[in-house]
Design goal:
With about 700 residues, the chain is an all-alpha fold. It has 29 helices and two strands. InterPro entries: TRP_calcium_channel, YVC1_C. Keywords: Membrane, Transmembrane, Transmembrane helix.
Length: about 700
């Protein structure tokens, strides 16, 4: 492996930046990243370079638009022209999370985290669309897998793990896994994911100067994670909100990019473009768009059964409709548990609608227990209480039916604002409760001969919610001496000071969040798409068909082999989901006839760009070329002609360009054409001199 060409001594944190420091850091040599360097080595080399060039605090916009980020341009150009390692984006996003999680009073860690995120998306803007897909969906391979001759074997998950490996599963020690049930170990893997990954990256960056070889590989928890999943874990919301990344997310949402192309026991997980002529039609069951459509239909049926049971309210026996509701509810619970195990707690908690699902499960379980106990004891008062508790289910079920609106930009942008305002409101209510309890205690003790404690609590509550006249009517009855001044003070604090402060605080909270609400919306949208599509489960049963798989195959796991179970699950899936697949195929056929399916909306026709294989540099004799990774990119002459102009206006703008940016882009395009014409008129020797 070639030596690491970076300075071995970082700048101490205590020393302030000076012009001499700037000149010293400008001469930092770029990291020598070979094509076959492991993910661990790539992280070490990039972290050493980022530590050297980012030596002073800087905001995200300063790094993006000012001279503070000049060294980042050099790194991006180097990665685009010289580096072919497929784990570049994965390493940058892992480092972004590492630096953002570090506590630094000066803000230096935040600057380094922003630098990693900027380099990650600027690197993607130098690539073709197919290359962007390859880099963003490249999964960290298992170092213990010796046979890495093909991309299939690098990205594949072992068939034994296809049915139970969590999306963000953590590698558990054999001693721990040997005596744990499968579902408990999966939940444990998901719940400890964030801390485990952070410890792994910390070991990598803190041990970059160590010469000894560690016994345990710190990159083990990153195995089988792609760059987009790491970005979601790292809260890299600016990266995920970029158009070039959202094109991939949208492609996965629409099923243009799939991870499973056929439903067979030997199929392997691998990102690929969907080809309707060769792919298995049952692979469309994993498309997030169709998953969401079926989810809405499932909740509509759930709501219909729910209304039927509540309208009938048979107190003396369980009706067939109520039995259907129990079956529907059991399928819903099992599907949520499977989703949690597949996605892990990190992804599962990122979706706000999963909170509604957990509340629905809790209410449903309480209703079922009280209903059964009431019927067994013939306690019909308890049965009525059970139906009243079931009525609370509508508070969460009705919004859950319309959760599909959150995937639209308008409604999806409002949800992060409401979450932030709700958080600030709960914090403010702590002060309100303290003042409320103080005045309630005083009024109750002063007027104890006239008003009881519950009556006084109701009066104080009415005053707090705006009925100030109630306080003025009873203040003399509370106490002739202390009642009026205390009531005037309480009305002033509650109606004027507290309510005015609350209104202003919520307004500021809304204004603060709405500026970044699009990033929050795209982050939630991206997490949902990744959660729905990148599961390592080969077979995914829609509810309520998942209960059939549970009842049939769970007992068979005690004595049947893994291959037999996988074949059986595939047969059952084909038999039960054939009507759903037929509807999907009909919809896609009609959509192709209506819209016209001449070109692929994601990667376009084949002649859009020329293919050029980038082989590893000749000075790396031991590097091994992987045919599918990466795809070709611009040659050196094109980069010389266009690179300087591209730095004037970056391609990393997430929203639509403004008028000034549009004019700059138009001027840059004209300069590109003029430069290309001048270079074309020059002799070859001049081009070679420019290239050097």
């Amino acid at each position: 492996m070639p030596p690491l060409r970076v300075k071995s001594v970082p700048v101490p944190r205590e020393r302030l930046a000076s012009p001499h420091d700037a000149a010293e850091h400008t001469n930092v040599e770029l990291p020598n990243i070979a094509h076959d360097d492991s993910f661990r080595d790539v992280i070490k080399k990039i972290s050493s370079y980022i530590t050297e060039i980012i030596y002073a605090p800087a905001s995200f916009e300063q790094l993006r638009t000012t001279s503070a980020g000049d060294e980042l341009h050099s790194l991006v150009e180097y990665l685009s022209l010289e580096v072919t390692n497929p784990a570049i984006v994965n390493a940058l996003l892992a480092l972004r999370w590492h630096y953002s999680a570090m506590s630094d009073g000066r803000g230096l860690s935040d600057a380094r985290a922003n630098a990693c995120e900027i380099v990650a998306w600027r690197f993607l803007t130098r690539l073709s669309e197919r290359e962007v897909v390859d880099f963003c969906l490249y999964e960290i391979p298992d170092p213990s897998d010796k046979d890495t001759t093909s991309v299939d074997e690098e990205c594949a998950v072992e068939s034994e793990n296809d049915e139970r490996t969590a999306l963000l599963g953590m590698i558990v020690a054999p001693s721990e896994a040997s005596h744990q049930p499968d579902h408990l170990s999966d939940i444990r893997r998901g719940s400890m994911r964030r801390s485990q990954l952070f410890e792994s990256v910390s070991k990598l960056t803190m041990s970059r100067h160590a010469t000894e070889v560690e016994e345990d590989d710190p990159t083990t928890p990153f195995i089988h994670l792609n760059a987009l999943e790491i970005a979601a874990i790292a809260d890299a919301k600016r990266f995920l909100s970029q158009h070039i990344v959202q094109n991939i997310i949208t492609g996965i949402w629409n099923g243009e990019i799939i991870f499973w192309d056929r439903l067979s026991a030997n199929s392997k997980k691998k990102p690929r473009f969907y080809n309707h002529s060769t792919a298995d039609p049952f692979s469309r069951l994993r498309v997030p768009k169709y998953l969401k459509a079926y989810e809405v239909a499932f909740f509509c049926g759930f709501l219909l059964l729910y209304y039927s049971v509540l309208i009938e309210q048979n107190r003396y026996a369980i009706t067939p409709v109520e039995v259907s509701l129990y079956v529907w509810f059991a399928a819903f619970v099992y599907d949520e548990v499977s989703e949690y195990i597949d996605a892990g707690s990190v992804f599962y908690a990122a979706d706000v609608w999963n909170v509604f699902d957990m509340a629905m499960i809790a209410i449903g379980l309480v209703y079922f227990i009280l209903r059964c106990v009431g019927l067994y004891r013939k306690d019909y008062v308890l049965v009525d209480i059970a139906f009243d508790i079931l009525a609370l289910e509508a508070l969460f079920m009705v919004p859950r039916v319309f959760s599909i609106l959150s995937l639209s930009p308008y409604w999806g942008t409002l949800i992060p604002c409401l979450k932030a305002m709700g958080t600030d409101f709960l914090k403010f209510m702590v002060l309100v409760v303290v003042l409320y309890l103080g005045f309630l205690t005083t009024f109750s003790l002063v007027g104890r001969e006239t008003f009881s404690f519950p009556h006084m609590a109701m009066i104080v509550s009415k005053i707090f919610f705006g009925a100030s006249f109630v306080g003025f009517d009873v203040m003399h009855q509370i106490d002739p001496v202390f009642g009026p001044p205390l009531m005037f003070l309480f009305v002033t604090l509650s109606s004027i000071l507290l309510m005015g402060s609350l209104t202003g605080m919520l307004s500021n909270s809304f204004s603060r969040v709405i500026t970044h609400a699009r990033e929050e919306y795209l982050y939630i949208y991206s997490v949902y798409v990744l959660e729905a599509s990148t599961s390592n489960r080969l077979t995914h049963f829609y509810p309520p068909f998942n209960l059939l798989a549970l009842v049939i195959f769970r007992p068979l796991r005690l004595f049947a082999s893994g291959d037999t179970l996988r074949h059986g699950r595939i047969v059952l899936l084909r038999a039960t989901h054939a009507p759903i697949v037929a509807l999907i195929q009909t919809y896609e056929w009609v959509a192709s006839k209506v819209t016209g399916n001449n070109t692929d909306s994601l990667h376009g026709p084949q002649q859009d760009y020329l293919k050029r294989h980038v082989f590893p540099p000749s000075n790396r004799p031991h590097s091994r070329y992987r045919p599918q990774m990466p795809s070709p990119r611009l040659n050196s002459t094109e980069m010389v002609n266009h690179q300087k102009q591209r730095t004037l206006v970056e391609d990393d703008v997430s929203d639509a360009p403004t008028d000034v940016e549009a004019r700059i882009a138009d001027l840059s395009a004209k300069i590109d054409r003029l430069t290309a014409l001048v270079v074309a008129l020059q002799p070859t020797e001049s081009i070679e001199s420019v290239r050097t």
